[in-house]
User: Which sequence fits this backbone?
């Protein structure tokens, strides 16, 4: 499983609209509205790097209102939760 954190700058008047569109994309498990340098944070959990590339470079580009993104790819997860078990259910 590939996990990535996508940090997004969004047109101010479109934050809620963009967040809802992102949350509806397969592979994006959560979207957070945040304070600070970025407006939204999207958690992406997919099977392959190719799936990640498709989300970030193809599907996100189609959403109007996204001004810029920065993608962080996770190497390891350090958590008390079994994220692999939680997010592998139902993945194709």
Assistant:
């Amino acid at each position: 499983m590939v996990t990535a954190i996508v940090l997004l700058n969004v047109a101010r008047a479109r934050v809620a609209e963009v967040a809802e569109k992102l949350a509806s994309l397969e592979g994006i498990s959560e979207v957070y509205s945040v304070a600070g340098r970025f407006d939204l944070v999207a958690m992406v959990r997919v099977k392959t790097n190719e799936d990640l590339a498709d989300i970030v470079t193809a599907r996100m580009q189609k959403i109007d209102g996204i001004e810029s993104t920065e993608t962080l790819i996770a190497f390891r997860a350090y958590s008390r939760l079994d994220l692999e078990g939680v997010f592998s259910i139902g993945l194709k």
